[in-house]
Design a protein that fits this description.
The protein is of the alpha+beta class. It has 7 helices and 14 strands. The chain folds into 2 domains: 135 residues, 2-Layer Sandwich (Fructose-1,6-Bisphosphatase, Chain A, domain 1), CATH 3.30.540.10; 112 residues, D-Maltodextrin-Binding Protein, domain 2. The protein has a 7-stranded mixed beta sheet, sandwiched between helices. Strands 11-10-12-14-13 form a 5-stranded mixed beta sheet, with helices on both faces.
């Protein structure tokens, strides 16, 4: 496990430093959808991470946002988002991160999320707790949804989708203390893990958005499910992550609107 952790952290720190130094220096922007952009920095950071992992674990599978999946017979699979929050990065808005998870037989056993602008490294290993720069994390103690400081996001297809997050946003706006929409799901979830947010929900995420942060929240004592309270995996397209104490109330709002 030590080699897994060292490899993931090393790759996250190296690519994160590259991303930080690249702010304001983008050479190429392309579109994967109507408002879904990718930059040359995303691709270069991804190549750095994949190279580091492949060098140490050549037989492992890799699922990464900007590349074709590499599927091997190994029980291990790395799930990578080289730059979560690309739109923020492209506008020099300092809320983005590197996200790297390791799964064994489909179950997350290691999660690393690195925010290069704040030099904050979130890590978790299965059954070993979650940490921020080596300090153990725990979710908040907020007990009432009315006192809740929440976060959410909107999918890239929000302008064309029939089922959007707008109604949920309105419902929570009427029931919580405040809501933030910062634009990087992995960091939002890590903020739940360290108690900065009390809850987070979002629709239409991809596995690389949540795979690492999912384990970090779980190991910090939080709770993660789908909107109806049922079991969540990073391969589901909706996520509700909370401190556990307001989870039932958030499920109710998401399920009934009340």
């Amino acid at each position: 496990m030590d080699k897994f952790r060292r490899t993931a952290i090393g790759a996250a720190l190296k690519s994160g430093l590259f991303i930080k130094r690249s702010v304001g220096k983008i050479k190429e922007i392309s579109y994967k959808g109507k408002i879904n952009i990718v930059t040359d920095v995303d691709k270069s950071a991804e190549a750095m991470i994949i190279k580091a992992i492949s060098r140490s674990f050549p037989g492992h599978s890799i699922l990464s946002e900007e590349s074709e999946p590499r599927n091997n017979t190994s029980p291990y699979r790395w799930v990578i988002d080289p730059l979560d929050g690309t739109t923020n990065f492209a506008h020099a808005f300092p809320f983005f991160c590197v996200s790297i998870a390791l799964e064994k037989d489909g179950k997350a056993i290691l999660g690393v999320v690195y925010d290069p602008m704040r030099d904050e490294l979130f890590t978790a290993e299965e059954d070993r707790g979650a940490f921020l720069n080596k300090k153990k994390l725990h979710v908040s103690g907020t007990k009432k949804l009315s006192d809740g400081f929440l976060a959410t996001g909107f999918a890239y297809g929000v302008q064309d989708a029939r089922n959007t997050n707008i109604r949920n946003f309105k419902n929570f706006l009427m029931r919580a203390m405040a809501i933030r929409r910062a634009g990087a799901a992995a960091l939002d979830m890590c903020y739940v893990a360290c108690g900065r947010f009390d809850g987070f929900w979002e629709m239409d995420l991809k596995p690389w958005d949540s795979a690492a942060a999912y384990l970090i929240v779980k190991e910090a004592g939080g709770r993660i499910t789908k909107f109806d309270g049922s079991k969540f995996t990073p391969y589901d397209n909706e996520v509700l992550a909370t401190n556990g104490l307001i989870h039932r109330d958030m499920v109710r709002v998401l399920s009934t609107g009340r």
